Amino acid sequence: MPQLDPADVPALACDNYRLLIFGIMLAALLQILDSTIANVAIPHMQSSLGATADTINWVLTSYIVASAVAMPITGWLAERIGARRLFIGSVAAFIVASMLCGAAQNLTQMVLFRALQGVAGAFIAPLSQSAMIDVTRPSRQAQIMSLWGMGVMIGPIFGPILGGWLTENWSWRWVFYVNLPLGIISLVIMMAELPGREAAARKFDLTGFSLVGIALASVQLMLDRGNHVDWFDSIETWIYLGVALSTTWMAIIHLATAEQPIFRQELIYDPNFLLALAFMIVVGVVMMATIALLPPMLQHLFNYSVIDTGMTLMPRGVGTLISMQLSGILVRRGFDARVLVASGFAFAGTSLWMMSGWSLDVDYWNIIVSGFIQGLGMGMVFIPINASAFATLPPQLRTEGASLLNLFRSIGASVGISVVSTLLARNIQVAHQDLASHMNSASVAGLDFSTADRFQALGDVAMRMADGVVNREAAMIAYVDDFYAMMWVTLAAIPLCILLRPPQTKGMPQQPVSDH
Length: 516
What we know:
Layout: H1 17-37, H2 42-49, H3 58-70, H4 74-81, H5 83-103, H6 107-134, H7 141-169, H8 174-177, H9 179-193, H10 206-225, H11 235-257, H12 265-268, H13 271-301, H14 306-332, H15 337-355, H16 364-391, H17 398-436, H18 456-492
């Protein structure tokens, strides 16, 4: 019988490990799904809640901003009231907020309830990540992070698909009601099995929280509202930018000099952790920006249904599942994390290079293959980065570290989606103007522009048809430009892999168990 390493024990013991992992994963998956599942239901909400095309976007904005502002205090709250109490309370609040969102009767109620849902959901992601590490022995932490990462990577892919199916077959309210039965199962499991750490008296850094919260809220509002108000042609965007820059500068000085800042300074002085934060921004940009672009492209340009779109994107998730399991095993066996991360970004860059060669004639299998390759790449990147980030952090810093990793991934996602959306809109206009300037009788068979005014009705129809063709071609060109730009962002991250230090699997000191 093999001898067990006495140092290879989990920081927290639990009675039913597999059941607890299932409950934690269920909670994490619900939160991650909810960040994208409501997007496809927005048009139906607009008519039902009596909102305009501009104001209905606050349903999404309120969730994003509330989540970003609340996430930085996860570590402090976990120490103050106990990680177990905070996790269970967050899941319970998320269930209640989901029920209230489903029952909302007007836009004001919906925005308020979505903000509550965002606050509750902000704590779930980092707490689920740190809890899974705490109850898993160090030698298997890379594998358990691959399991957690599957939900993070696959959730945004299946969220819009599930949301579209529920909206089409039931009602937009079921996008929120679906959280109730699954959330209750997760809540019951965690109440029965989740261990906890001893709460500690830690002073709340009100100044740091205020500065960080205002900075994050300003950045998120600028990114979310920028495209609607035409970016820097609007005074609103300049206000957001000014507030974000000034509060960020003050926050940096405060966090570096305060005795008890909102983020412990040990995190800032850990080079592996800081590098992991930078990589998380790139992962957020590439992963979420691509997912934001593909569904509307497939549905609007190629006339795919919601179900067909889901089936086309599913291989991306399959690739992620395969590479996460493989990278988890390799990291556990001591394979160099730098090679895995660099290979993952190379795979993702190759996929985006393939996508930059698409046209309106691209076939189904080309989309599937490129998606599968990108899924392989993102899965190879995610696990080694998390393993490297947590390898040098003591257990008492894991929750705080997890909150920062999730926050930076969220910021990267917001930046990526805003940038590619803006580039898409601008490039469509440029491409449309360029293509329209070359339209003539020779380029459009059967249409003589010089005689179109003789048959006004037929001429108008013909011109609209020609404009429709130009619009599709211009949109395809704009999508290709976005994929090309993201390819260079992905490839630019590869040299940073040299700076990563490989994770060291070693025993961590045990923490007292008390807040059951």
